[in-house]
Amino acid sequence: MKNFIRVALLATFASSVAMAACSSGGTGGTSTAGTSGTGGSGGGTMNAASVARGKYLVDNLLACGECHTPVDANGKPDKTKYLAGSRSYDFKTSMGDIVSVYAENLTSDKVEGVGDWSDDLVKGAITKGIDDVQVPLWPIMPYPEYALMSSQDVQAIVDYLRTVAPSKNVVPPDTYPNPGSPAATVNGSKIPHTTLPKTDPDYASAERGRYLASIACVNCHTPELAPGLPDFTKPFAGGRTYRSRSDVGFSTSTNLTPDATGLAGWSVADIAESIKTNTEKGTKRPLCDTMPGGPGRMGDLTDGDLTDLGTYLHTIPAIKSAVYQCGMDASDAGADGG
Predict the structure, then answer these.
(1) Are 287 and 293 in contact (CB under 8 A)?
(2) Is the distance from CB of 136 to CB of 5 less than 8 angstroms?
(3) In which band, very low, low, confident or very high, does the pLDDT at 50 lie, cut at 50, 70 and 90?
(4) Domain ranges of the chain
């Protein structure tokens, strides 16, 4: 059986804003989980609401297709191979070696995809970084953060994947088999809470936004102490350098905190509009090509999710970083934001 998910998009914003977004629902999510899905060995009957929630997570919030749907000759997603894998991604190991990995086939095909996996196997790959044959996944796939997802949202993703049309697309093997052991899951207590008092009318919104940011933003926008090891003394401060695809150069994520080197001066509405249109505030320049904003992707997040995320990012502790731009390596920018 093919190994499961290898990678997920590591997104970066242009110039002074960067973010990825995920599902609303506070610390426990808002969706109602369905039972084990048909098509896999879990059996049972899926809940329609759970499938819809899973589609929203996969297509808009986690933007799984950015990695797991191949592109056509024009660089556009090949809809005939939706979630069928094959895009390649490069990253550096702790030894400095460049490893190329390939986004796996997530369709319901029972040979090339996950159609023959039990629900528990799929969940284990998403949240623990272990595939169906107990092989560890490279942590470029953000399973350490996905471990913070509510059980309802994880089940919703499983339920939705059961409905994806099978594709026999064959994904090439990675250039290096596996990291030896899975990366440690993220300690949720390391994700900062809003600085708003509990009596503030926006407190609940900000805390729902914390859930979104913890599973969709912190992986890309927190610098690393070592590959797969985030520096949680600087959460959301940007500065993580990575090569998101084999056909593009290295990029560095930008600061999402309300510091002058980050999102200070941005309103919640500004953040929402930037994600919706995939453009930068003021200049209206397109965001870096690794950011899956705009219609059909994160631009279709609900207004509620966008408000919650923006409110949270507005009210976390500000951290001074540098001002990064598309294609810039972290070593090219000074700590003073130059």
Answers:
(1) yes
(2) no
(3) very high
(4) 188-332
